[in-house]
Amino acid sequence: MLYAGGVSRPSRPNIRGAILAECANRTTSSPDVCTVVDCSAAACGLNPVAYMRPMLKANFCLQPPGDSPSRRSTFDAIVAGCIPVFFEHAAARAHYGWHLPRGRYDQFSVTIPKESVVMGDVRIADVLAAVPEDKVARMRERVLEMAPRVVYRRHGSAAELRDSTSYRDAVDLAVEGVLRRIRRRVSALEDAQPDAIYELEEDDDD
């Protein structure tokens, strides 16, 4: 498993501190179990190779919540074919439903309750080691299938990509999602159900 992020130890127990502590203990006896990429002081922002190369080799990429529920690292992991490991539902299913449909998360990610990790009730490495190898392979395949949904095509990309109706990138999905939302809200107003426009949407894309 791999963790890419800040490595400063928090003053109070939290999920990032628990991850760093487990990785420190694991790497002492089994260095291949956990890899830590230090992204402090914007180091990874200036040198993406520093974390993308290890992600390509890892089966699981840990995605603890930070200042906001979502992390850029989640999308980097998907592009690298690394299975995201979430520690709270708000960091995953509540966001980006157009690009990462909520009903599919179990197919391409793992969720471990952060409270269990912080309190020491479970070890992340043990949970991930219990996932059968054939399931890991299927999940990584699913992650790679999701990758085009979180990137965008270069303007000068090949004609078969520009003209394809089956290949949709992040921009395509966002535009389609906005149009669906507008149609849904217009329909709600026409049906005299204005409160319906504030309801949480189900997955907009399959």
Automatic annotation (TrEMBL):
Molecular-function GO terms, alphabetical: glycosyltransferase activity
Record has Glycosyltransferase as a keyword: yes
Assigned keywords, A-Z: Glycosyltransferase, Golgi apparatus, Signal-anchor, Transferase, Transmembrane
Domain Exostosin GT47: 4-118
Top-level taxonomic group: Eukaryota
GO CC, alphabetical: Golgi membrane
Compartment(s) where it occurs, according to its Swiss-Prot or TrEMBL record: Golgi apparatus membrane
Membrane topology: Single-pass type II membrane protein
Statement: the UniProt record of this protein carries the keyword Mitochondrion: no
Pfam families linked: Exostosin_GT47 (PF03016)
Family: Belongs to the glycosyltransferase 47 family.
Protein's UniProt name: Exostosin GT47 domain-containing protein
Organism: Sorghum bicolor (Sorghum)
